[in-house]
Amino acid sequence: MVVGEVPPPLEPCALGVAPAVSLPVRSAKGAVDRLWWRITRDLLRGMAILIALHVFVLQISVVRGHSMQPSLSDGDRLVVDRLSPRLAGLSRFDVVVLRYPRDPSVDFVKRVVGLPGDHVRIERSGLYVNGRFIDQVFLHIDDPVDMAECVVPEGQYLVLGDNRPISCDSREFGMVPAELVKGLVRARFWPLDRLALFD
Q1: CATH topology for 56-197?
Q2: Which is catalytic among the residues 110, 167, 170, 182?
Q3: Does 105 qualify as catalytic in the annotation?
Q4: What's the pLDDT tens digit per position in 139-160?
Q5: Which of 125, 177, 183, 186 is the most buried (most CB within 10 A)?
């Protein structure tokens, strides 16, 4: 080294000091915007899931009227399974929500009594299916008026209300095509003192 020369400055790395890195500064407004976006996105996803569940799997229905007493009362809130009838069909005495055949914009709740191919009649308040007396194990109010024997066509059901004297059902509007059955009643969740599960 020549005397009087100024040595060149050392690079910062040569001294073991990392070069300064400039970090982006995130504003509080940007963080709030991202939070709102996440909340909105999650809410929209949740709504889409609920709509899909309502359309394809479950629905909530409210009983209007007294045609299903004493089993169901006016104002009862029901959980309706929309999937099972499509996959497994219906069984005798299932409680279902259906579109009223004369006005499909109106929903009815009734009990399935006759399955496709059944010969059904009501005589002296007794239910006879295919010539055999069938014990009605559910609570119901009998109608003293007999129903002549009828045959349930394929792909259709015969439905009755549990409060037979006042029920508008298959005795009035005929058989119900399977495509008008919206779902199977699984539970009553309101009022709380009448919580019930249905088979």
Answers
A1: Umud Fragment, subunit A (2.10.109)
A2: 110
A3: no
A4: 899 988 999 999 999 999 999 9
A5: 183
